[in-house]
Each structure stands twice: as C-alpha cells, then as structure tokens.
Amino acid sequence: MQATTANSLSQAGFHNRLRQPDQILTIRLDNCPPAIEWEAFDAWLLKKLALPVSGGPDGGVPGHDATGLMWRILHIAAGLQRAARIPIFEPGRILSCEADPAQPGAWFFKVAVPRVDYMFTQSTYLAYNSATLLALEVAAAPSRFTEPEPLYQQLDENVLQPLRQALPVGKSSIHVLRTAHERRIPWRHIGQGVFQLGWGRHALLFRHSRVESDSSIGVDAAQHKFVAAQWMRLMGLPVSEHRLVTEEGDALQAAASVGWPLVVKPANRDRGEGVTVDIDSENTLRSAFRHAVQFSEQVLVERAAPGVCHRLLVVRGKVLYTVKRLPISVEGDGRKTIAECIEAGNARQKAMPAWDRPLPYPADDLARDALGRCGLRMESVLASGAWAPLRRIESTEWGGLDEDFSATLHADNAAIAIQAASLFGLDVAGVDIISPDITRPWHENGAIINEINSAPLLGASQSSLDTLPALMAQLVSGEGRIPIEVIVGADRALTRARARQQYWVAKGCSCYVTSHIITEDPGGHALPLAVRGLFARCIALLMNKNVGAIVLVAQTDELLDAGLPVDRFDLAERIPGEFVASSFSHVPEAERTDKLFQLLASSAF
C-alpha cells in the first residue's frame, strides 16, 4: 500500500469532496475472486461486524467484482477504526482502478479516505491492510469465519489495541463527534485527544466529555467526594452525613457517629470503584474499608440514604436527561430460570462483535447474594417482563440497567442538580441524586446529591445517545460555522477581498482577510502570524475566537496540493483575466488556475 498525504503530524486538507479531511491511498488487490456472492458477503459483514454497506462506489470498473470488493474494504477499514474509537464516519471514494497486466486477477486502486489529524500514517496502513486481507479471505472462503470468536480476538490484539494506542480518543468523544458529523458541525483533532468543534467565534475545545469552559478548580473539587460534599453543604444542598477516615479503627468510630446502615467508598475515585453498600455490621464494615483503601488512602464512611441513584445530565444550566441507575439485571420470560436467562442473554451478546458487547451477565456469588436479598435464587423462574438484579448497585465495572425518568423528574430535583453544576463551574456535569422517588421533591423524601461527575460518560445508554443532539445544540451555536469566502486571482484579488471584508464588517461581523503572505484584521491592520501559507493562516483564524468571518485570497496554487482548509465555502469568486502563481514551472498558470477554481467552486454553496 502507498499513501499520498501530508506529513502525519500536520493537518490534512479537503481534496475529494469528502466531509472529512482526506488522504489518497494506493491499494493493490491480489487474487481477487472472479465472482463473489455479494448478498452472503454483505450479510456476513452485518451479522459478524455490524457493518451495513451503504451506497455504491463511484469509481473503478463498473460491475467488476474487484470494485465491489474495494468498496467493502473501505467500509471495513472505517468500521475497524470506529471500533478503536477513531472518528472515521464515511468510507471514502474510489478514484481509479487499473488491472495489473503482469498478473491476472490483480488490481491497483487509488482511493480517497478520511484522515484524522495527528494520526501516524502507519496506523492508517494497519487499518486498510487489515481490512484488505480480511475482505479477500472472506470473499474466497466465507465458511472459514462461521465461528468468528478467533477473528475477534485477532482483530482486537493486532488491530484495535494498536489503533487505540495511536490516538487516545475517549468513549464519549466518538459519540460526540458522530453527532457533530451528522449535524454537519465542523471539527478537527488538535492533538492528544482534544478536538475543536466549530470555527472562529463558535469554536469549542473538548476532550472526552469535558469542555474548555469547565472550571479547573471545580473539576478538582468534584473529583474529591469529601470536598465536593463540603461545598454543597455550604450552599444548602442536600448531601449525606459522612466521615473521612484513613484507618480501620476510625471507620468503626465513624459508624457509631453517623449511624447504620452505611456506605463505604474511596474519597477520590468514581464510576463505582471500591464502593460497598448495605453495610450493617462491624465485620462487613471492616471488609468494606479494606476494599476501599485499595483504591484510595482516604475513605468515606457515610450513612446510607434511602432510595436509588439517578443520573441527571446537566449541560449549561439545563437537565437533558434523567435515568434511574439500576444494577445489571436479567429479564424473565415466564419460562426460563434466572440461570437459564443469564445463559441465554450471554449467548445473545456473544453473537455481537466483541467490541460492541455489553458486559456479560454474571452468575457468581455476588449475583446470588443480590438475588437472595430479593428472595430469589438462580433456580427461580421470573415472570415475563420482570427483572432480577445480579448486583447490589450499578457500576462501570459491572454495568447496569437504565430506566428513563426524564419526563417525570420533579422540578425541585432538577433545580438542585443545576445549582450543583453551577457551583462547580461545570458546563457538562453528571449529577447523581439518590432518591426513593425522583418524581417527588428532594425535601420531602430525604433525597441527597451523591456525586458530581465532571466527565460523565456520554452515549453509554440509549437515553444518553438520544440526547446527544440536544447536548450539541446547547454547546455549539447552529452548525458552529462562520462565513468563509475565497477570491481567486492575482493583483486585484486582494482588493476584491477587502471589499467583501467591508461588507461583513458593515453587518457587524468581525471579518478577517488573509492571503498566503498577509493577514488583516477587521480594521485593515496587519495581523502577524507565525505560520506560512494560505492553508495554515486559515487554520489559525479558524481557531481564533475573535474571528466572525474570513475572506481568503488565493493568489497561488498552494491549495491544489495542500487541500482546502474547510469542507465548504459560502462564496468562491474568480477575478477575470488573472492567474494564480504556480509552483510547477512546466504547468501553465492558466491551467492550474482553472483546476484550483474548480476545486474551490465544488466546495461552495
């Protein structure tokens, strides 16, 4: 495989009408089967890899199986990268296809595929080489992959794990970026798993589920449960009665002070790590303390609050969803025992691609204990639609079951969640309220705020996925875009660009003009920038939150090679009779100017 791309540590441009920056790869197909059963092939992709094949190729040799196979290779490579949480949301385009005259059945394809900035080229090779080998093997002998578990293990070890290490993108990030892509909000990776949503004055940086506007002081305070409770108690918000301890003996004294039953948890860990609930004796308290202290030297001993934990997602002063967080549970059908339901549920999950599977249903001693507290056993037969808990609480380690209460959340409970998020200066916060009934006000039933999560996991449940468009609307104005125009020409292009700048300034928009050598602010003053070239200067302005519009002056053919800095322009205009300077002495300037304007015009409204 060969690649035509910018340096792997630079930013990519838009060349081939994709909605993501792209790069060109040359892929060779050897020993392509002469006839492929596409219906069976596509059914395998959907069932084993959860990959639907959409549309069809717009390049290559129409009707030839090699072209159809390459189109599926692009889908597989994109799917593998998404499974590794690399944000690739379109398969790409087939640009050309040529048969190898020296070897029958061999083909050379040139393809344009999405590229994520600051991802090493070797990682891209890994994804597309692996997809090519897999597609050829499945096409040649689909019966080899009837039982895909060995394939899942091989892909995880040899492809997904290296890809995850190459680009540290969190679980929340891939869901947020997919939503941005679907809403046509521009985004770019700017390094170390940090992404920019939107342009100029609409730009917002985020990493995982934190945004740049979150208070760093608030994030630190929310991370420490004891400090967080102190802040909320001072503000008059309901929190638990607890003591901070570091020794087992102190934990016993704390129990006598706050009263039974108890919850013991590490003071500065989240996602349910090290938590023990329903502690009603000294022996269980000692055991719980020893468990918690493995995660943190500081341990909270607190009186248990009545009810169940509910997660409220608060985004910029608005509760977007509320779910009751139940422990991982198995559903009955009126015929099977709980043990049989667990076995059947795990069998269903095993049929899914390994990277998409929920956590397995446990059938261990902790599950038996949770069942016993409800008067159930593994041999019990559950009524149809009834649920049996297999853990005492929901946690990241064990999983859980969410029940949506967004429509019935009491306004007083929403109010304290919003106040808590504001107290810690968090634009995105997961506020956990323990309540016997979240539809009733907290001050009537003894509900408390249990935790403030400054980096709540997004997209982990259907309720969370469903609210991502609303989350995006709260964080980014519209499509997050600013007006961007481009004028192509030589001497008069800059004059025309300044006239367009004054048009936007008169409309109250802070418009900047930039060519490949000079950038001017809305007042016409030179803005020194430590970057060279039209592409780099435009990227710099897109990151500047003072910028409300940009007019580019294309006086050279640089963008033909670098690609466009944005996926679309509001206006592309050419100065008649003027030609851009060409970096290729053997190519007429008029020809390069025509090609440049065609590229720009294809990306304009």
Could you explain how this protein is built, in words?
- This protein has 605 residues and is an alpha+beta fold.
- Helices cover 36% and strands 20% of the residues.
- It is built from 19 helices and 24 strands.
- Strands 17-14-13-18-19 form a five-stranded antiparallel beta sheet.
- It starts with a strand and ends with a helix.
Fraction of residues in helices?
25-40%
Tally of DSSP β-strands: 24
Largest sheet at a glance?
A: 5 strands, antiparallel
Average pLDDT works out at: 92
Structural class: alpha+beta
Broad shape: flat
Q: Specify the number of helices.
A: 19
Low-confidence stretches at least 5 residues in length (pLDDT < 50)? none
Q: Report the radius of gyration as a whole number of Å.
A: 29 Å
In short:
The chain has 19 helices and 24 strands.
What keywords describe this structure?
605 residues, alpha+beta, 5-stranded mixed β-sheet, 19 helices, flat
List the topology elements:
Layout: E1 2-4, E2 22-29, H1 38-49, H2 65-83, E3 93-99, E4 107-114, H3 121-140, H4 149-166, H5 171-182, E5 187-191, E6 194-197, E7 204-207, E8 210-211, H6 216-223, H7 225-234, E9 242-245, H8 248-258, E10 262-266, E11 276-279, H9 282-292, E12 299-303, E13 308-315, E14 318-327, E15 329-331, H10 338-350, H11 365-372, E16 387-389, E17 400-404, H12 411-423, E18 428-435, H13 442-445, E19 448-453, H14 462-466, H15 468-475, E20 484-488, H16 491-506, E21 511-514, E22 519-520, H17 534-542, E23 549-554, H18 558-562, E24 571-574, H19 589-601
Parallel strand pairs: 20-23, 20-24, 21-23
Antiparallel strand pairs: 1-2, 2-4, 3-4, 5-6, 6-7, 7-8, 9-12, 10-11, 10-12, 13-14, 13-18, 14-17, 15-16, 18-19, 21-22
